[in-house]
């Protein structure tokens, strides 16, 4: 099956051939990701949606995770490249950065191809003996929402179990939106209002975190789940919503962090201050400057990738298996190893070594999977690590579908609730942690639902 997907490498080969002309090399590599989207979604998309419309299976990894993971990694770099290219026309010192950006984009395209091949390699390997029941009532999703939220609340107060709480809260959030969708599908007003209430509660909670991703994720889940029912409406609404998010989120999140994280202000007061400053006409120019800085530096993080590409192996040898060893050590519970190094600090060491940020800075700039793959073994490390990443994503998805009776509960709610951190990815230390403890959570939830007789299943 993988053989026919060798055509995905064509844009990469052209981009490598043109590497001495960075403008065209970058542009071909950037467009190459859209070519991969076309091949996997349009040309062969029917293979991954059981010959149904893609909208009916949009939360399969080949669609959702590919869109988010590679969208951030590959497509958003255009803003940074445009900014650097404009500077390079009048200032020769930016030429080297132009070459680095083109190289980083080629490496990102390689990661995109590897992810797709990894997902495809295990697509369809599901346990055919398991009886699949795709339909669950709104009442079931109401119970699941309340159950997972309650368990998450309990786990959040138990030392060492916080990450399990995160998975449970995520499941509760998606199940709450699905309650809204199920209510709309079955035309039951009670469940529509309950689902809407859960969504508003989760969305308002997300606005207090200071993280842009939390707000974006809440709206993304809503739009994706409503898309099969209201395609045109979702498409029309998503355009102004995306514009509004890009316009206000960088400033909004920055003020929340500044005022509530270190300014001693309550998060509710910080939110009010942020909204007041955004609506103040005198701040519009400052907001535009903040937005452009966000689009060029924070959205894609390719500028940080450039620094690592320029650092390794020219100034420091590859890390080889060092990052993997750190990741394995991070899996050991602190109760068994009280003096275990803090994972965040261990991961930040390579960021400091490459001088991405100063050691005295309070900012966090954790690497992404493509960066850690490159730091480990260069281009080969990227291909192998991201290919395995794709394989794991699809394998875990298959297992979730098998355990939880199909796409609706297993694929949409459980898998994307537990493995939501894999949508965009993180450094190796946190990725492996999510993979291992996410699988433990998968089985834990399965047995809890079986014990409560909420899930009727013939086998494990």
From TrEMBL:
Keywords annotated in UniProt: Membrane, Transmembrane, Transmembrane helix
Organism for this UniProt entry: Pseudopedobacter beijingensis
Transmembrane as UniProt keyword: yes
NCBIfam families with a match to the protein in the record: XrtY_assoc_Wzy (NF046084)
Name of the molecule in the record: Exosortase Y-associated Wzy-like protein
Transmembrane spans: 28-46, 58-82, 107-125, 137-158, 164-184, 191-208, 235-255, 374-392, 404-423, 435-452
Presence of keyword Transmembrane: yes
């Amino acid at each position: 099956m993988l053989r026919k997907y060798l055509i995905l490498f064509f844009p990469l080969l052209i981009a490598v051939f043109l590497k001495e002309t960075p403008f065209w090399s970058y542009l071909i590599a950037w467009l190459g990701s859209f070519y991969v989207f076309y091949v996997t979604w349009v040309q062969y998309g029917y293979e991954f949606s059981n010959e149904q419309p893609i909208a009916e299976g949009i939360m399969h990894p080949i669609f959702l995770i590919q869109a988010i993971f590679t969208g951030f990694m590959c497509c958003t770099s255009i803003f940074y490249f445009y900014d650097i290219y404009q500077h390079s026309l009048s200032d020769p010192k930016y030429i080297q950065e132009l070459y680095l950006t083109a190289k980083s984009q080629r490496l990102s395209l390689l990661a995109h191809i590897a992810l797709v091949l990894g997902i495809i390699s295990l697509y369809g390997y599901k346990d055919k003996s398991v009886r699949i029941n795709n339909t669950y009532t709104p009442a079931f999703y109401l119970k699941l929402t309340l159950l997972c939220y309650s368990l998450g609340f309990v786990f959040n107060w138990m030392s060492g179990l916080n990450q399990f709480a995160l998975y449970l809260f995520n499941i509760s959030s998606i199940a709450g939106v699905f309650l809204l969708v199920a209510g709309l599908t079955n035309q039951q007003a009670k469940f529509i209002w309950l689902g809407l209430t859960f969504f508003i509660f989760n969305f308002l909670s997300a606005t207090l975190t200071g993280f842009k991703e939390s707000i974006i994720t809440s709206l993304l889940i809503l739009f994706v789940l409503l898309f099969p029912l209201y395609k045109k409406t979702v498409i029309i609404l998503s355009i102004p919503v995306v514009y509004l998010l890009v316009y206000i989120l960088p400033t909004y999140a920055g003020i929340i962090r500044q005022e509530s994280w270190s300014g001693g202000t309550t998060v509710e007061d910080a939110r009010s201050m942020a909204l007041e400053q955004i609506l103040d006409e005198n701040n519009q120019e400052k907001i535009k400057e903040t937005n452009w800085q966000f689009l060029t530096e924070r959205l894609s993080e390719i500028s940080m990738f450039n620094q690592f590409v320029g650092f390794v192996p020219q100034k420091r040898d590859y890390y080889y298996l060092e990052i993997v060893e750190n990741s394995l050590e991070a899996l050991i519970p602190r109760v068994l190893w009280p003096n275990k190094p803090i994972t965040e600090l261990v991961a930040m060491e390579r960021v400091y070594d490459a001088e991405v940020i100063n050691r005295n800075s309070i900012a966090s700039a954790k690497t992404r999977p493509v960066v850690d793959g490159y730091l480990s073994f260069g281009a080969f490390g990227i291909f192998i690590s991201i290919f395995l990443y794709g394989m794991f994503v699809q394998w875990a998805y298959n297992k979730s579908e098998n355990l939880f009776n199909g796409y609706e509960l297993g694929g949409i709610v459980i898998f994307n609730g537990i493995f939501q951190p894999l949508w965009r990815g993180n450094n190796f230390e946190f990725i492996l942690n999510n993979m291992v403890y996410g699988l433990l959570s998968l089985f834990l939830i399965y047995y809890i639902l079986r014990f409560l007789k909420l899930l009727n299943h013939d086998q494990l």
